[in-house]
Amino acid sequence: MEENLRRKTILILGGAVQLPDGYTPPGRVSRSTAGPGAGSGSAVFRFGKYRVKKPVTYDEAEFQLVIGKRGRLSLTRHGKPFIKNIDFEPVVRHCPQQAFFDIDPRCMFRCAFCASPLLDPSEDKHLDSDTIMSMLEESMKSHEVRAVSFTSGVVGSVEETVGRFIDIVGRVREKYPDMPIGVEPYVSSADQIRMLRDAGATEIKINVQCARPDVYSRVCPDLNYDDAWDRLKEAVEVFGRGNVSSNLIYGMGETDVDIDIALERLCRIGAVPVLRAVRISPINMERMGEAGVAGAAITPERAMKLAEMQKSIMKRHGLTTEDARTMCLECGCCDLVPFRDF
Ligand code: SF4
Ligand code: SF4
After folding, report:
1. CA dihedral over 80, 86, 88, 89, signed as positive or negative
2. What does the pLDDT look like over 160-182, one tens digit per residue?
């Protein structure tokens, strides 16, 4: 693997980026409510063909942004040279080139790694379809928007939440007939998956999250592992092979063999794995500990080995990430993405 890929791995697994005092990054700083950077101000950095989304801070941190001659940017790690040439990549909404909306950041379920259940349920931050449409139009004026993606916590009931997806997907599809639209809902039936497709979604992400059922039952205590796999299978029947993806989080006490088996199972179904290193942050640390996830550091060697494993299993099943147009596979900011990064 080339050296820059190793640097991407270290960046993904590492801490925040410290900005020089008084320095304001160009463009928008993303304040995500979902994904690994939830809850902090983040920026997307590009170097070579890679991009990574990192929390940014003015406090001391693992990485430091350095402004050199003629404004050239570089990164140091613990004060030592790390990436010679780096730049900020514009964020549309949440990530580059996509308008990615979190319809409702709250959630009635309690997955230990997720920031959503910790949000104050009385503080309604949900985005209604009119608001999303006007935010989208504003993004279209200021940026090149290649895809629109939606995620959401579950609020009220699964049916109501899926209904909110369907409404907004239909509106985007009507206004932008050729726009790739990705959805990452929690679904409880094949009918809901079909309705999302019929509304105009082109790609769907249904997360099995864990490689082992015992880990899942501790980490996602309100959800059922077998159901997640069943919905995933149905999603492939509805959306087609390669148009369905699934988060598989590692670093929660499973072995590499567990990951191998789960990757094989995902690819056999025709779903593209999004293999993601667990993030333990001050936000989820206590709940992850209660769920039995100690959060032992993941080494870059393990991350790269598992990504290689993912690539070879995908190859064997004739799957690629290259055709994905939405959500994390297209964004690539938080993971090593086979066929794109290496
Ligand atoms: S279902 Fe779980 S992972 Fe999804 S938003 Fe709710 S708590 Fe988070
Ligand atoms: S890879 Fe996924 S979670 Fe990470 S910034 Fe991109 S869209 Fe968000």
Report:
1. negative
2. 999 999 999 999 999 999 999 99
Instruction: Name which residue sits closest to atom 3 of ligand 2, judged by CA.
Output: 35
> Residue 64: CB partners within 8 Å, gap ≥ 6?
17, 18, 75, 76, 77, 79
CA distance 218 to 1: 35
Q: How far apart are CA 72 and CA 65, in angstroms?
A: 10
Enter the tokens of residue 307: 């990504």
Return the ligand 2 atom nearest residue 327 CA: 7
* Fold exhibited by the domain 94-331: TIM Barrel (3.20.20)
Helices 256-269 and 300-316 pack at an angle, to 10 degrees, of 30
- Candidates 278, 284, 270, 285; CA nearest to 319 is 270
Region label for 105, one of left (φ > 0), alpha (ψ between -120 and 50) or beta (otherwise): alpha
Mutate to test the pocket of ligand 2, among 94, 113, 209 (most ligand atoms within 8 A of CB): 94
Asked whether residue 11 carries a pLDDT value surpassing 80, the answer given is yes
For 212, the token pair is 């082992």
Residue spans per domain, the chain: 3-89, 94-331
Q: Is the CB of 331 under 6 A from ligand 2?
A: yes
Neighbours of 64 (CB within 10 A): 18
Please give the distance, rounded to the nearest whole angstrom, from the Cα atom of residue 108 to the centre of ligand 1: 8
Ligand 1 atom index nearest CA of 220: 2
Nearest CA to ligand 2 atom 8: 35
